[in-house]
Amino acid sequence: MENQLIRAEQKLSMIARHAPMGLAEIDGEGEIIEMNLKGESLLKPVIIAHDLRSNNFYAILDYIAPGVTDKIRAAGDEAGPLAGARHSAAGLTVPKSQSGASVCCCSGEMSVFRSA
Questions:
Q1: In what order do the strands lie in the sheet containing 91-92?
Q2: CA-to-CA dists, residue 67 to 1, 50, 61, angstroms
Q3: Is residue 85 part of a domain?
Q4: Judging by beta carbons within 10 Å of its beta carbon (0-12, 13-18, 19+), is residue 102 exposed, middle or buried?
Q5: Which of the four pLDDT bands, split at 50, 70 and 90, describes residue 27?
Q6: How many domains does the chain have?
Q7: Of 37, 74, 90, 114, which one's alpha carbon is 20 to 30 angstroms from that of 11?
Q8: Is 3 contained in some domain?
Q9: What is the rounded CA–CA span in Å between residue 57 and residue 111?
Q10: How far apart are CA 34 and CA 23, in angstroms?
Q11: pTM score of the predicted model
């Protein structure tokens, strides 16, 4: 039984890592715990353009969508989805919803989840 659970966790991890949308898990202070490949590719241009050396999602988000960090912090300390944003030719826009109930798997989609 334990072996099946480990295989299921590995499979889920692989699916998330290679998902066609960006996924990031952050802690209560905005530190990135884990991010998939698409999330890295979506945020890399912002990180390079602004010479950001922090592993803090809030610092990155302030360049993409100013003011959204405050909305995420106001969401409280509960674990779960926080924000979802669509990437456009001009860059990332303000999230579609604070709840991040994003189901679209477009190549430019990014969702952020707070860990427990």
A1: 32-35, 22-26, 109-114, 80-88, 91-92
A2: 46, 18, 9
A3: yes
A4: buried
A5: confident
A6: 1
A7: 114
A8: no
A9: 12
A10: 8
A11: 0.65
Q: Which two tokens stand for residue 101?
A: 């109930």
Indicate whether 4 belongs to any domain: no
The SS3 of residue 65 is coil
Instruction: Tell me which residue range forms the domain holding 32.
Output: 20-114
Distances (CA, A) of 8 to 15, 18, 24, 78, 114: 11, 16, 20, 25, 22
Residue type, 25: E
Longest distance between any two alpha carbons in the chain, whole Å? 49
Residue 96 has pLDDT above 50, yes or no: no
Q: What is the pLDDT of residues 31-84, one digit of tens each?
A: 998 999 999 998 898 889 889 888 998 898 888 888 888 877 777 666 555 555
